[in-house]
Structures are given as C-alpha cells and as structure tokens.
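Example 3.2
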Amino acid sequence: MSSLHSPKQNHLLAALPTAEFDSLAAHLELVSLSLGAMLYEPDEQLQHAYFPTTAIMSLHYVLASGASAEAAGVGNEGMVGISLFMGGNTTPSSAVAGIAGHAYRLERHKLLQEFNRGGSLQRLLLRYTQALMTQMGQTAACNRHHSIEQQLCRWLMAALDRVPSHELVVTQELIANMLGVRREGITEAAGKLQRGGLIRYRRGHIAVLDRVGLESRACECYAVIKKEWS
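Structure, written as tokens:
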C-alpha cells in the first residue's frame, strides 16, 4: 500500500474495528481508475468488491435503445459490488468511473468470508445498502420531477462531498450521460451557473467557486441523500 493512499480513506473500511480491518488489510489491492474505466458490465459475474477512496463510480443503466442514466454514485462513503453479499454474483447495471481516482479492491471470496462472520463488516455493509437504495429511489424521483439545472447542482454537490478538491475533471457529455439528458441541456445549465458566478467551466474541468450558492440551487434530493450517509 502506498504511503500516499490508505484504505481508511474509505469511510466503510475506516469504521471497522482494528481486528476486522487488519483481517482485510492484507487482501486489499490498490487500483488506479481512469475516467470512464469500466469495473463491470451488466450480467457479468463479479470477481471483486471495490472500496473507492478518491474515485467516484457511477452505477449506470443502459437501455436497448442506447439511452442511459445513472442510478447512483459511489465514492469514499461506500463500496461497489453489493450483489456479492446480497445473494447474487451479477448485476443489471454497469459500474463506470465518473471521476478518476483510486479504489481498493477485495476478492469476492474474502469479502463473503468476512461478511458471513456476522461482525461489524456485515452491519456496515447492510446499513450502506439501505443508504444506497435510498439514493437510487431519490435519484429516480429527481430525474423525473426536477429541472436539469437542479439535477446538475445535486450531482456537483454530491461529487464535491467525495473529493478533496473544489475542481472536478469531467466532461459535460459524461454528466449528460449520467443524468440521462441531452448534452445541450447540461451546456445550458452549466452556462447559467457560470454566469451566476457559481462555477467556472473549461473543457473537461469544472471548478466550484461558490459552494453555498450551488447548494441553494440544488433540489431537496441532495439533502435527503446526504442525510443517509451521516
């Protein structure tokens, strides 16, 4: 493990008692995830669970028509691969790096071994699954009832909560794909936020200049989802 990275940058791993953390630590492998990196595809058997530290993963659904949308984002608050301990080895969604960074991966047999002990890891992962389900439900309602600008503000705020910087390396096209809207809609919404002095956008980079102002433009979904992580 690199001195620049620690599994305890992930909140689930950091919350484990020392004995349980030590049991996992030797089996955790640090991986670097580039923007757009695919961890798994729909109906593919999962081999690892991933605990992001600086990367943000998008749990993404793609329809037969090619249209797609994000069901949830996973950053340092959680893990990718809940199907491994919820009774299945596959998932209908894909997992894509929406923000590049790092994660620790754990082989599925070791995850199940520790989960089935019934200790703190099991309790933490089940509680996390409840929070993830809340995020998915709230995201579905948000995508149906709130404006693109509100959705963009929600997404940006959620991303900021998971990274140490006020600047995000992400394209408008990728955000549009994750929100399931046209790129033109994101361009228009980002333009309004930039003219309002809330963000600064240049190709592939979004810097948040006024976090308080950005949060005031987000819908209530941001606060509902954030409460679940607390």
